[in-house]
Structures are given as structure tokens and as C-alpha cells.
């Protein structure tokens, strides 16, 4: 039985965008019947923000057991098929990965300090993008080069 693809979503604090992306990607993979090993981490660990938990609960995804972690808290941190950064500072701080690891940068606005509507907008953008990523993985296609290049993302 082949090993499922391993994907890491990396952000600065692993408190919002990367946590939401991890949960959304797992759900998209479940719905697509794609076995996928998804992790999220930050360049520093803090805590998962309550607003992230709130807006994810609205779409039936529970972040209550999620914890903020660094890359070094993730099992086998140098062995991923794809590493996706969701903020600019994480893209700059992202460690070097072996040649076979696909790296993508999909920058999303930081919803921290914003209204719940702003959090919902970012959640919905993440959902669209990571459903597109799961679709590409399921179909053996190349991951979109950027957020703007994703065929599933038409408005943001």
C-alpha cells in the first residue's frame, strides 16, 4: 500500500490561517476519498485563535483540539511531498526542503483583529484554494503556482 502524500501548511504563528487550511484540506481530502497526511505548523508557536475556532465551527469543522506548533513538533519535519506557505513571513523563513518537495506560496490576508466577516472571507478563500490543491493531488496534476493561478479561485 503506497504512503499517502504528506502536505505541510506553514504560517508564522500556526494560530489561524494554517490551522484553518489544515482542517479544510483534511475535509476536502475526506470528501474526495483521497488519503492525505496533512499537518500545519508555524515558524513560532502561540495558540489557536478563538475566532478561527468560531468560523470553522460554522462550517462543521472543530479546531478545539488543535494546538499551535512549530515545524519541529511535526513528525518527520523534513519529509513532505508539498509545503505550502500561507503568509509572506513564513515563506521567507521556510527552511530548505529536498528537491522532490513541491513548494507553493499562497498568501492570504491575516484576519487577526478583524471582524468575524473578515475571518469568514479568509476561511472561504482558504477553502476554495485548498479544495483546488486536493483536486490537483487527486488527479495527479501540478499544484497551482500561486493563489491567483488557481482555476477554482475566481474572486477574492
From TrEMBL:
Q: Known InterPro entries for this protein?
A: Ptyr_pPase, Ptyr_pPase_sf
Q: Which Pfam families match?
A: LMWPc
Domain Phosphotyrosine protein phosphatase I positions: 5-136
Q: Keywords, A to Z?
A: Arsenical resistance
The protein's superkingdom reads Bacteria
Return the protein name: Arsenate reductase
What's the gene? arsC_6
Amino acid at each position: 500500500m503506497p504512503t499517502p502524500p504528506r502536505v505541510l501548511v506553514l504560517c508564522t504563528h500556526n494560530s489561524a490561517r494554517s490551522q484553518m487550511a489544515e482542517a479544510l484540506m483534511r475535509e476536502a481530502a475526506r470528501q474526495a476519498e483521497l488519503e492525505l497526511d496533512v499537518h500545519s505548523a508555524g515558524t513560532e508557536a502561540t495558540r489557536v485563535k478563538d475566532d478561527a475556532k468560531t468560523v470553522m465551527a460554522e462550517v462543521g469543522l472543530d479546531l478545539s483540539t488543535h494546538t499551535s506548533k512549530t515545524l519541529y513538533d511535526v513528525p518527520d519535519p523534513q519529509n513532505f511531498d508539498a509545503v505550502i506557505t500561507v503568509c509572506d513571513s513564513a515563506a521567507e523563513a521556510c527552511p530548505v526542503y529536498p528537491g522532490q518537495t513541491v513548494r507553493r506560496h499562497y498568501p492570504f490576508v491575516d484576519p487577526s483583529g478583524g471582524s468575524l466577516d473578515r475571518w469568514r472571507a479568509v476561511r472561504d478563500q482558504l477553502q476554495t484554494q485548498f479544495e483546488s490543491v486536493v483536486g490537483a493531488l487527486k488527479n495527479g496534476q501540478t499544484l497551482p503556482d500561486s493563489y491567483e493561478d488557481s482555476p477554482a479561485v475566481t474572486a477574492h
